[in-house]
Design brief:
This protein has 135 residues and is α+β, with helices and mostly antiparallel strands. 26% of the residues lie in helices and 25% in strands. The protein contains three helices and five strands. It has a three-stranded mixed β-sheet with strand order 2-5-4. It is elongated.
Length: 135
């Protein structure tokens, strides 16, 4: 049996079903079950790999308005999911630090991006690829 002493396994219980929103696009209606696992492998003495799974929401809830309920949606939501894997550096010194820093840096870049691309068509796909290469 493999030695799993340094294996990291994370499971998140399924979230409670949210009430349906007025203007919830298809992406916000998707429910995702996620599990993740890292392992040091058969050669290395320690696990240098890192991962992150995240959900990105763009959400608007109207708190007060002079518009009638039949004129505006009271709640709108779009959702996207992202997954990042940072492989260690094959036993090189500081590999676990490098993989951790790679994920933290990429996450900060995502958070600092002012216009998240939530609905991707052909034109926006090119922009998303360009941004990914830049980062």
């Amino acid at each position: 049996m493999d030695d799993l002493a340094d294996t990291q396994e994370l499971f998140k219980p399924q979230a409670a079903k949210r009430p349906e929103q007025d203007n919830e696009v298809a992406s916000a209606q998707v429910q995702v079950d996620v599990a993740a696992l890292t392992h040091r492998g058969k050669v290395r003495p320690k696990n240098e790999d890192q991962f992150l799974v995240g959900r990105i929401d763009r959400d608007l809830e109207v708190l007060l308005t002079s518009l009638g309920e039949d004129q505006i949606s009271q709640h709108s939501r779009e959702t996207g999911y992202g997954m990042i894997v940072a492989d260690g550096m094959g036993g090189e010194k500081g590999g676990e630090v490098a993989s951790r820093l790679a994920i933290k840096t990429l996450l900060e870049l995502v958070i600092q991006t002012p216009d998240w691309l939530m609905r991707i068509d052909d034109e926006l796909a090119e922009e998303l690829i360009r941004r990914t290469k830049d980062r």
